[in-house]
Design goal:
By secondary structure, this protein is mainly α. It contains 6 helices and no strands. The longest helix has 25 residues.
């Protein structure tokens, strides 16, 4: 679990540095570029559409894990808009709260007793 947490921390650090560099060079106007690439029907758009579906699945899992509660739905919105920046922190927090029990990390309070 320690290596997993270190890996998540490294992912977050690299992504934060990369994002900062892109924002300095291109500005924060992501959505028109993101959806514009999808609309042009090229490989960048295909990647963006695939990524959008992965973000959607991540958000659905987070909402499901929290039984679609208001807090879970709020976290799901963060999952869509913050992507890996959210998910790395979320998984680190879960890994600590569950003491590294992966089944509990994945399913929340749905873990069957026994």
């Amino acid at each position: 679990m320690t290596l997993f947490r270190i890996g998540l921390g490294l992912m977050l650090a690299v992504l934060a540095a990369y994002t900062a560099r892109v924002m300095i060079g291109s500005g924060p106007d992501l959505l028109p570029v993101f959806f514009g690439d999808i609309g042009r029907m090229g490989w960048p758009g295909q990647f963006n559409l695939d990524f959008l579906f992965m973000l959607s699945l991540s958000a659905l899992w987070v909402a499901w894990r929290h039984r679609f509660s208001p807090a879970g739905l709020g976290l799901a919105v963060l999952a869509v808009f913050l992507g890996s920046s959210f998910l790395t922190v979320y998984l680190i927090v879960l890994s600590v709260r569950t003491r590294g029990r992966v089944v509990e990390m994945l399913t929340g309070d749905r873990v069957a007793a026994g």
